[in-house]
Amino acid sequence: MPALSLILLLSLLPTALPAQGADSTASAADGQREVRIGVLSHGGDAHTRDHWAPTADYLTLQVPGHRFSVVPLDFDAVEPAVALLQMPADSTAARAGGYSDWTVPLDYQSVQKLLREEHRAPYDEEARFTLLDALAQYWLAVLAGVVALLAMVLLTSRVLQLNHRLSRANTRLERRHQLILDSVAEGIYGVDLNGCTTFVNKAMEGMSGWRAEELIGNETHEIIHHTRADGEPHPKDDCPVYATFRDEQPRFVDEDVFWRRDGSSFPVEYSATPIRDEQGTTIGTVVVCRDITERREAADRFRRQEAEQAHFMRLSTLGEMASGIAHELNQPLTAISTNARACVRMIDAERATVATCLEVMTKIADQAERAGEVIRHIRRFVRKEEPEMAPVAVADIFETVLVLMREDARRAGVLLHRQVGFGADCVMAQRTQIEQVLLNLVRNALEAMSEQLRERRVLLLARRNGDVVEMRIVDTGPGLGKGSPEHLFEPFVTTKPQGLGVGLSISHGIIDAHGGRLRVDSTPGIGATFFFSLPHVDDCGGPQDAANSLHTGGSETDYAGERA
Amino acid sequence: MSNDPTVFIVDDDDEVREAIGLLMDSVGLAAETFDSAWAYLNCFDPKRPGCLVLDVRMRHMSGLELQERLTEEPLHPPIIIITGHGDVPMAVRAVKNGAVDFIEKPFNDQALLDAVHRALELDQEQRGKALEVAQVQDRLERLTKREREVLEQILAGKRNKVIAADLGISQSTVEAHRAKVMEKLEARSLSELMRMVLLVYPDRATNAAEN
């Protein structure tokens, strides 16, 4: 088969076809009409003739009275052929050529197609191929396409709608979360594994002064947590918030500071909790913090009030001990004045030797110092001082208690002992408050023993116990009555007829503030022991006064009357 | 030595005690110091003249307790109480119990010395009186039973005639007994006799007044 064989069938009825290149010598000698079939040839005339010969023969057999023959046509001959065909039947050329009754078998697809493409009659009036043609030709496909498109559009819009609704729900949820976060009074913020802020609530913005957008995405630690309360830099490797996502352990920090936008700091307590995703992997830390400025201030105020109260109590204690203390001062003053007068008299009577006078002068000086010592203890005891803890020598505390209580003990016929155990030299304490506690307890002990015939002794004992120093006040009194110990430290509970019942309660409060607990151990008929612990420190910061160097580490019994 | 008056000082404060001792020494008075009431009681000798300077507040035995012990003795040195602030009610009690003086610490040296001198005079007086009492008692011992009875009647202020009637003896016998009583008691007059007896029996004065 030729690759491209365009067939042009020309029916010459009854006239012979005088086509260019075709055999125009049609003869009707045998009464048969000659029909020449023009074939466009590509593979050469001979090939075309051979190829189409059977068809011509078949047609000759099938159509009686006609003889078909094949006329190979050059491609170039087509145009004139077509032009001939289009000639009106009555045109001169057609009549002359006898083409006027030539027809084209219109059912021949290829011919039709060619005619259409060439815009020849009957297609010369026809417009070019339009969308309508396409529609007409492919309406089913178009319909299917349109339907599919419509379905797709519907589906897409549905998906978009759902998506939109989801995102709105998401936004709403987020807003609700934010609303919940913002309605919390505590500051809340989150950090990711890089230490960058992921979210911040309103309270956090409010207390820190930082806007959320200033914090989010930046390293929180460097913004609000860079420096410690004491002004030392706070390296982020030590940051508990960061440590929380590293070791995945929730933690609570009760004393720290955060820094505001304006450069000031505020005290906070906060909890840091690891945030985990659905898979349980830690992805950051959430911090819930609280500004404790007010609480701190309230605590300070309370401490100041307590200090005021303690000061008042010390004054009142001192007032109650006034006569004993006056005696304690009277003794040296009496000795001083008497010695001086005696010396004057001896000099007047010219009986004084230089040696005697020297001896007397020395005695006078000693006694004046003794009086000064008493006054020093009293003054320090009533001094109004800030409730600050400082390292104190235990022996020093005992000395004050002994000086202030010596006379009362003497009157009560009680022996006062003191003993400072090895390594129990220094404690961290608010000195006068501890002295107040010891005075209270010793006074109670003296009072408890005032009626008894048995030996009357009070021992002040300091003993090292790990990192604390245990202070014990042991007496040989009658012990505590039944039922009293549990209520003993409550205010206004007293076993004394004239007691107010505030001494032990205040003592209890003081020891509480020192982080200890005042407790009592009592054996009826043997004695009572009150005890509490104070934090131990290694160094008192140098000898604070004479008592420190004199009695540290030693044990001593003060026979209450040895000086009085 | 034992006849020179001594100032006994009892105070448990070494410094005060020694200062008072020095003060006594400065005016030429002999002084002895004791650091407790017990120490003094251990050395107590009623025959030694002097006075006692006593602190109220002392351990074991207070000045008041010592004072109470001493009042049980027939003769003891007069007591001067020295006291600190706040002991005044106690000191007043001591004075009521017979202390001659109380002085508040810190004291004026002159005040203490005055008190000591007064006390020493009193002691001397007391000792003189005690001597006299002892003598009178000694003499009273020498009276016979009848002479005692007569003495009683005389002290009751009765006249010889009444005494004779009461005792159922003659008036001349009464007079003889009376003379013997006067002689034995070495009384030169009735008033002297009365004074002597009252010295020994102070309660008789009230009896006499009643009759």
Structure, described:
The complex is a heterodimer of chains A (564) and B (211). Chain A is rod-shaped and about 205 Å long. Chain A has helices at residues 45-62, 78-86, 92-97, 109-118, 131-183, 202-208, 212-215, 220-224, 240-247, 293-320, 322-348, 354-382, 394-411, 431-449, 503-513, 546-551; strands spanning 33-40, 66-73, 187-192, 197-200, 251-259, 265-276, 282-291, 390-393, 415-420, 426-429, 457-465, 468-475, 519-523, 527-535, 555-558. Chain A is α+β, with helices and mostly antiparallel strands. In chain A, strands 13-14-12-11-9-15 form a six-stranded mixed sheet. In chain A, strands 4-3-7-6-5 form a five-stranded antiparallel sheet. In chain A, helix 11 packs across helix 13 (394-411) and helix 14 (431-449) packs antiparallel against helix 15. In chain A, 46% of the residues lie in helices and 19% in strands. Chain A has three domains: 1-126, no CATH class; 184-291, PAS domain (Beta-Lactamase), CATH 3.30.450.20; 308-558, 2-Layer Sandwich (Heat Shock Protein 90), CATH 3.30.565.10. Chain B has 211 residues and is an alpha/beta fold. Chain B folds into two domains: 6-134, 3-Layer(aba) Sandwich (Rossmann fold); 142-210, Orthogonal Bundle (Arc Repressor Mutant, subunit A), CATH 1.10.10.10. Chain B contains ten helices and five strands. Chain B has helices at 14-26, 37-43, 63-71, 88-96, 109-141, 145-155, 160-167, 171-184, 190-200, 204-210; strands at residues 6-10, 30-34, 50-55, 79-83, 101-104. In chain B, helix 6 (145-155) packs across helix 8. The longest helix of chain B is centred in the middle third of the chain and has 33 residues, at 109-141. The A-B interface holds A 322-324, 326-327, 330-339, 341-343, 345-346, 349, 351, 360, 363, 366-367, 370, 407, 410-411, 413, 559-561, 563-564 and B 12-16, 18-20, 22-23, 25-28, 57-60, 84-87, 105-107, 109, 112.
